[in-house]
Amino acid sequence: MGRATLVWAVVYACFGLACALSNTPLFYLGGDHPGPPELGWGAVAVGAVACGAVARLGLRPTLRVLLWVCCVLAGIGAFGLLMDIVTLVFGQGVDSGVAAAHHVLAAAGALLLATTARSVRRPPDATLVVASSAASRPVQLTACAGTVAFLPYAVMKLTWTSGGTFAGISGEEMLAISKRNGASGIWLTLESWGLDATVLLAALGVFLLWGLVRPWGLAFPRWTLWLRGRRVPRWLLLAPALIGAATLAPYGVFGVGYAALATAGVVTMGRGDFPSASDALLVGWIGLAAFAVYGVALIVATRSYWLRSRSILPG
Question: In terms of domains, do 206 and 303 share one?
């Protein structure tokens, strides 16, 4: 694992250097608004520090602190990966191929750095012990909250796809807005069938959430899923959970904060395609609150699953 992390660090530093020297932005601030290309030097720094820390880790285990710092920074760099996956699944293009590649590379680095940092403290003969137990009652109640938070969002979206009107916009107007914004054929076809793509993704997200807190989620890696004679690891659930939590929790929490400021009149909420700013604020509250509550619930559930399925010494 240390060698894989070292290779990643070199590749990540070279990737950032190439982007910085060519003035290619690694980050997008939303839509078609690229961030400063100078941020590429940040990727160079993270890769260089990670490379040095991994190379000296065997001699100085205290360097794992640097690995965790690089892990957090790589996780920040991976923000937006979930949005890239969603747009690609439904046949839409990403804002930037370079930015999407950076999201994937940063996410892989965050996982490698975390695993390498943990391996310093874990004995090499540790084995994975999976107990068929559910999460604690508070964690399951948190999962309930994350599930219920999506109900208003689903009702709003399905109202539009069924031809109804919500927040001053009818289903036909919302479909026209989707076409104008370049929605893919898959997206538009689902809407014509009365289905909303984001509601389907929310259902998958709820399924993932309960998989993290119920006993069948712990047994999932042991079901007839085998790769070259080895069981599929717990990362099968942890990887999408971490990507979702790292994206939806900060997006939702900061979004709710902005919506609260807009409600108090401190900042102004643009009306966008809605008849009024109050309509836009209503829709914003419903969507952002769902992402915030679900994102926090996913963090709690992921931590519970991590601890309940972690590697321990035999006996």
Answer: yes
